[in-house]
Design goal:
The structure is a homodimer. The first copy, chain A, is of the alpha/beta class. The first copy, chain A, contains twelve helices and 25 strands. Chain A has two domains: about 140 residues, 3-Layer(bba) Sandwich (FAD/NAD(P)-binding domain); about 200 residues, FAD/NAD(P)-binding domain (3-Layer(bba) Sandwich). In chain A, about 35% of the residues lie in helices and about 25% in strands. The longest helix of chain A is centred in the middle third of the chain and has 21 residues. The interface between A and B is large, with 56 and 56 residues.
């Protein structure tokens, strides 16, 4: 038994990693638990799903990220229960852990809003497994259609992407480039007209979080890439081969990508605390959970208000990372007998990539960028988010390679052998 | 219907790819069928299994490899039957294909020689799926042992590698570096003494195909990497947690890697032709199947005699590639009304890598190299075997990165979500 304060970090995403690494120099024992042995670089999942990047460019060994930190250990285990009063967390296949400080960095999970057939047939895009499942499915449909023209006519190659936010737009744009640049060459016998990509957004415009000029730019950039953008439309139900809109329109498509709808990790519902919209948790200025000293809530599950601007902050990777780091610093200060500080966000901007040389950036202040310049900013920010210099080097090489060759080396399907 | 001769290539390994690409300029229609949508770079499978390389560095899109060849199409389908008299091949999920010329490049498959429990519990190393399955299993055992010390005592981290050929030696050496360099840091709480790597070879020495000085070097290089080399020993039976040798000795180990035993693809048994030892097929000087004009047999399933030296050639990637290319050339000559030429092998040497800066090379002539110099030669030859310049660039980057950092970015386990 050690007498040092025990810090339990739940979740190995941007927020959890930020907290664990900031505690490197602190006189504490850090235990980080995640259900995977890797950190997922979520902003690049759509590039994994479309064969542009490989798993190791998106998933990074958690142990690697704390390897220089002798006060931190990693455990891979699903979390089964959190008892804030007993200060104890239970796991599947791992003895319960007690804590002096807790960092809740559980992230969000996908919700289908009860859309009929979605849970069974939709392809969400929030985890590495999601991205690989989507990639393998799309490749399988092209292989099958290449052998059976009837499948092409049945819409086997059509994809409906639901949600006009960054996930939906980035996935739709990347699928269009995969189809028109790569599959057009891989499957010369199949007419690209028979392979539609339809982006469906319930609101009046895609990219609701962006200014009108960026919304217009994004729609044009998608349409230039032959993505059909349908706004003001809701998906009513999904079958393995058909998507039915609320209007009654039926789109033949064997693939529906679900880029809409996140809610707080369902574990938070059992915490016995008041939850905000979408099962998220409101926190104090220093990100502490009101009424539970020593418990800090960060990342996507937290409703965070910027101390300087008073604005509620969006659910972004950079907000997650910075809030996690702040929680780590706050715990270090507590342990050292100092007071915590309120959290204020250093804005890196909200950004999304529609495709090659087509991205949008909007700062909280309101400044916007698009095109080449925005893509450069997008890459700069995402490289900064990458956990190690090696990752940064690899991503630059991969991006440079794909720009030169338009190749997508990842468009292979490596399943178990028959 | 086209009136051009139809060339059917069965198998997308080195031999099949070599044949298909050599036919690029020929006035024929080429159909290449493989059960995967990728070409497997088998010499690097052990690097995939130990997290040094990623799937896309070992598997390359078959369609990508013939994308500049408008006379070639790729189909992904398991082969179910070959009728040499009817000149027709049947597939699972694909209409039967007739041919004017056939290139049999089916490769080998693993045989366990009836070793008890091997089919159920051993981890062979011949396909990408094998390599990923081994990697995930080893990672899972370490994760489990990290939570349960009893597992460590039960030998959960011990690995027995069967077979002192290149596959066994390279896998054992790479596992040792993964254990001692990476897992030692990833799992500081686990004593490396509790994680044994035992290489079991039935013969008197490992690397039977190499000269004694290289055998001695390889054994010393393995032992320097803490691999226990046991020669003159056979595996009698395998259970999920124990390996029993013919001597009766029982080695506690939850992982047995099967690096021994290949035989010709079982499809060849149904061809109704005489087979050599290990279900391989003897071919004529131009690699044609005696009695079956227009049928060429290449790669691991062929017993090839060098036209110049009269020596039987080993089952090597470079022999497979060159024999496949020769078959492609022979068919092109036939179609052009020219006579075929006998095949003679341009020796690149037999080589294997024991670990970082430790490799061996032996030319057919008898010249040998070891250490740094051999590793350089190993890389040169393997880079030459890689299908595209992009692949070569990626491999160099990956190797350079791992040399600098000793990192293994692939040591994550990306399974489907719970």
């Amino acid at each position: 038994m050690t007498s040092r304060p025990r810090v339990l970090v739940l979740g190995g995403g941007f927020a959890g990693i930020g907290a664990a690494r900031k505690l490197g120099g602190a006189d504490v024992d850090v235990v980080l638990v995640d259900r995977h042995d890797y950190h997922t670089f979520q902003p690049l999942l759509y590039q994994l799903a479309t064969g542009l990047l490989e798993t190791t460019a998106v998933g990074h060994s958690l142990r690697d990220l704390v390897k220089d930190q002798d006060n931190a250990v990693i455990h891979k285990a699903p979390i089964t229960g959190i008892d804030l009063d007993a200060k104890e967390v239970s796991f599947d296949g791992l003895a319960p852990e007690t804590y002096d400080y807790l960092v809740l960095a559980l992230g969000a999970e996908v919700t289908f809003f009860g859309t009929e057939g979605a849970a069974e047939h939709a392809f969400p895009m929030y985890t590495m497994a999601h991205a690989l499942r989507l990639k393998d499915h799309v490749l399988e449909r092209w292989e099958a259609a290449d052998k059976d023209a009837d499948l092409v006519e049945d819409g086997a190659l059509n994809v409906v992407v639901v949600g006009g936010g960054p996930t939906g737009v980035e996935t739709a744009g990347a699928l269009a480039e995969l189809y028109r640049d790569n599959f057009a060459r891989d499957y010369p016998g199949i007419s690209q007209e028979k392979a539609r990509i339809v982006l469906v957004e319930a609101g009046d415009e895609i990219f609701a979080m962006f200014k009108p000029n960026l919304q217009k730019y994004a729609r044009e950039a998608l349409e230039k890439r032959t993505v059909e953008v349908v706004t003001g439309a809701r998906v009513h139900s999904i079958s393995p081969t058909r998507v039915t809109l609320a209007s009654g329109e039926v789109i033949p498509a064997h693939t529906l990508v679900w880029g809409a709808g996140l809610q707080g990790n369902s574990l938070v519902r059992s915490l016995g605390i008041e939850l905000q919209h979408g099962d998220r948790i409101a926190v104090g200025p220093d990100l502490e959970l009101p009424g539970h000293p020593g418990v800090f809530v960060v990342g996507d599950i937290a409703v965070i208000t910027d101390a300087r601007t008073g604005q509620a902050l969006p659910q972004l990777g950079s907000v997650a990372l910075q809030s996690g780091e702040h929680a780590g610093e706050s715990i270090a200060r507590r342990v050292a007998g100092k007071a915590t500080k309120p959290f204020s966000y250093r804005d890196k901007g909200t950004m999304a990539a529609i495709g090659r040389n087509a991205a949008v950036v909007q700062m909280l202040g309101g400044r916007t960028m698009k095109g080449h310049k925005a893509q450069f900013a997008w890459r700069t920010v995402h490289l900064a988010l990458l956990p190690t210099n090696e990752d940064r080097a690899k991503a630059v090489v991969d991006w440079a390679g794909s720009e030169l060759t338009h190749q997508r080396v990842g468009r292979i399907s490596v399943g178990p052998d028959e």
